[in-house]
């Protein structure tokens, strides 16, 4: 089973992905970490040096061509589903789960991790919430193409496993 976790940055994709992978006994991968292994540098540095457009091209390349095992859980970056044909590709090649979270909840989670995230570096308070609301509104139509939508605040690996196996 291939499981792709999508959602806005700070939604808990990596944290939940690790728990889910452990629960179903498959490896966990983070797309940003795969990109960093591919480039030999950080996502933030690549983003700053080459810009968002080049980063999104690289993100697609790594997502769609990286050799991974037959079964895994992969956490994508928040923008990955919204560029190129990534969302369609993930839906065609595995199960997609959108971890949905309200903008204020996301802002609360991101408040202390802004410096390592290029898109929100320097934003605070209502400015951060407004940015999240605007960006989330633009991305929601992609996120909602996921095969499963779950509440990011109360997501439970056992419930998701049951959901996945019922549909499998």
UniProtKB/TrEMBL annotation:
Mg(2+) binds at residue 14. One of its GO terms (molecular function) is ATP binding. ATP binds at residues 10-15, 117. The keyword Cytoplasm applies. Substrate binds at residues 32, 56, 78, 139. Pathway: Metabolic intermediate biosynthesis; chorismate biosynthesis; chorismate from D-erythrose 4-phosphate and phosphoenolpyruvate: step 5/7. GO terms for cellular component: cytosol. It catalyses: shikimate + ATP = 3-phosphoshikimate + ADP + H(+). Its cofactor is Mg(2+). Catalyzes the specific phosphorylation of the 3-hydroxyl group of shikimic acid using ATP as a cosubstrate. Monomer. This is Shikimate kinase. The gene is aroK.
